[in-house]
Amino acid sequence: MIMHSTKNDIRYLSIMSLLYVLLFTYTAKAQQAEEPAGFALPKAGVKSVMPAVQVEMEMNEHRVLSWPFDVTRVFLADDSLLKLDPVTPSKLRLRALKAGKTRVNVWGDDGVALTYDILIHAPIEELRKVLDEEFANQEVTLRQLAGSVMLSGSIREAETRDNIESVARQFFPRVINNLRLIRQREAEPLPVKLQASIFELSHYDLQKHSLKWPLDNSKAGQMSHQVLATQGEVAEFLQAAHDKNLLRRIAAPVISTVEGRRASFETGGQMPLVVAAGSTEGKVRLQQWGVRMQLLPTRLANGKLRLGVQPRINQIDVTKAAKIDTVTLPGIRTHQHDLLIDLAEGESLMLYGMPMNRIVREKQDLPLLSDLPLLGDSFYKSTKIEDKIELFIIVAPAQTAEDKVASTP
Q1: Measured distance CA(179)–CA(185) in Å, rounded
Q2: What phi and psi, each to the nearest 5 degrees, are found at residue 377?
Q3: Largest CA-CA distance found in the chain, in angstroms, rounded
Q4: What backbone phi and psi angles, to 5 degrees, belong to 144?
């Protein structure tokens, strides 16, 4: 009795399983039959894809595409930009949602796919409003060309130009950037005026006035330099020598230039110089004597003036005299230097270390005889004195806003 009941249960389960399979198959066929004809797979399969057709739309615009055949399948690349609604088996309604670019593929029964590139742009007035708000100081002209926008105008910075283009691409998928960059004029270099003063100073005169040369004893041919401030030992010494009329100014050239431009000055002249031409013979040629200096000023960010200085000094040296026949010609001693120095406001550059030895004749009156009227000036005693002459140059910068043209007097 129990075995018979078990067989009946198994037969019942088999019948219920068969009914469930039949019901699922029927439901699936019913759903396939109810699917819109425009989205079914083509019977012939996909054979080829035709060249793309471009369709331009504005946001929120509706457009209907129709074909002379029933559509069996549709593919949409980006449904966030475009919405498709089948109207009939051969018609589709397109609704643009937002700006961008997407693609639609449509197949018929023959398996041939038609491709549509959909370009969606926003109203140009919305783009103009945003640009006016975000780039109020920029003059940008907008022009719509079908589904594209062209940007025109003049922009000062490349970053601003790129930002305007990026904003425009949020409204139009295609942007023609015709914004022109204005080249900013380079800042004009500041004018610089340099006052150079060339002095001679006698150690014999200093001794008579109880003054001492404050710098280290210079050696012949070893030019040195020092930065002078408005106060200090050297500045006080120069002021004292000036007050006692001990400074002999040889030349005071003024050099007007602009920062970054090399300028130069030259003082002195030419003199005949004997050049060896053999063991016993010599040739005479003209040699420049005096001071020649090149200067290159550059204004630094900290306000200092960087000065490149290349001085060359040719001094007449009687100790190097040469004789041709009955004529004795002095020689030339050369000093040259190359330095780079930074000068703050109120500072100047002093070049020294070019001493010369000279013989000075000092006239002394004779007792009684020198006091005679009319004839007293004819009676005196002359004394030879060996003197040391210091040659030094001071370069003091002074910026002048009114000088616009570089010149070298």
Answers
A1: 19
A2: -70, -20
A3: 182
A4: -90, 130
DSSP character string of 82-129:
EEEEEEETTEEEEEE-SSEEEEEEEE-TT-EEEEEEEEEE--HHHHHH
Instruction: Name the residue among 224, 226, 298, 223 with its Cα closest to residue 263.
Output: 298
Stretch (H or E) spanning 355 = none
If one counts every other C-beta atom within 10 angstroms of the C-beta of residue 259, the result is: 18
Helix (H) / strand (E) element for 206: namely helix 203-208
Inform me whether the pLDDT recorded for 394 exceeds 90: yes
Q: 406: number of CA atoms within 13 Å, CB side?
A: 16
Residue 384: closest CA among 357, 405, 407: 357
Contact (CB, 8 A) for 242 and 205: no
Do β-strands 112-121 and 53-58 pair in parallel, antiparallel, or remain unpaired?
parallel
Q: How far apart are CA 173 and CA 145, in angstroms?
A: 12
Q: Is the dihedral of CA 164, 165, 168, 170 positive or negative?
A: negative
Burial class (CB in 10 A: 0-12, 13-18, 19+), 159: exposed
pLDDT of 222: 75
Q: Collapsing DSSP states into helix, strand and coil, what is residue 162?
A: helix
pLDDT confidence bin for 215, thresholds 50/70/90: confident
Note the pLDDT tens digit of each residue in 154-185: 888 889 999 999 999 989 888 999 998 887 66
- Give the C-alpha distances (Å, rounded to integers) separating 6 from 10, 11, 19, 374: 6, 9, 20, 173
